[in-house]
User: Fold NUDIX domain-containing protein from Paenibacillus phytohabitans.
Amino acid sequence: MEQKWLTWAKEIQGIAQTGLTYAKDVYDIERYQALRELSVDILANYTYESKERIGLSFAGEGGYSTPKVDIRGVIFQDNRILLVHEKLDGKWALPGGWADIGLSPSEVVVKEIAEESGYQAEAVRLLAVLDKKFHQHPPEPYHVYKMFILCRITGGSAEAGVETSGVGFFAEDALPELSEERNTAEQLHTLFQYLHNPEKAVILD
Assistant:
C-alpha cells in the first residue's frame, strides 16, 4: 500500500486541478491554486525532486483529474515470459507504457511490444487491471491503473528499441532484477498463473 503522504498529495492535487478547471470565482481560483501549491510542497518535502520539476509534471496538467493508464504486454514462450531491459534504470520489465490518445488498449500494447522488443504481436485477452496503490511499487506522483494484456507473437524477432537495450524470455524461478516502477515480482508470479490456468478469471483490484 502506498504511503499516506503520497495519497494525500495526489488527492489534494486532484481536487485542485478539477477545481481550477471549473471555478469561476476569483477567490475560489486562489484557494485551488493554494491547494495545488500545497500538494507540490508535500512531494518536494518527501522526495528529492525540485518544486519546479514537480510543478511542471505533477501539477502542470489541466482538465478534470483522472488516473493515468499504463498498459503492459504479457507473452509466454516455452514456459517463459517476455521481458525487456529498460535503459532508464537498467532493469527488466514487461513491454509497455502509457496509453496513447487515439489508440485502443489492444493497439497500444501491440505498438509497445514492437517498439520495445522487435516482435510483432496480437492481443489475445485482458488478464488484469490493477491499481498501483495496492502494490509494492516505488512512490510516484500519479495515480495509475495498470492493464496487463495477454498477447501472442505473430512475427518479427528480438530487437532492442529506443528505450530498451535487451530482450529475453525468463522462467518464473529465474526472473532478473525487475524495474519495480513498471512491474513487481508478485505481479509476474500472478501472471504466470495464467500460463498454468488459461481459464483463470480477469483480476480486478
Observations:
- The chain has five helices and nine strands.
- Residues 54 and 60 are 8 Å apart (CA to CA).
- The chain has a mean pLDDT of 91.
- The beta strands are 68-74, 76-77, 80-86, 92-93, 96-98, 119-131, 144-156, 164-171, 203-204.
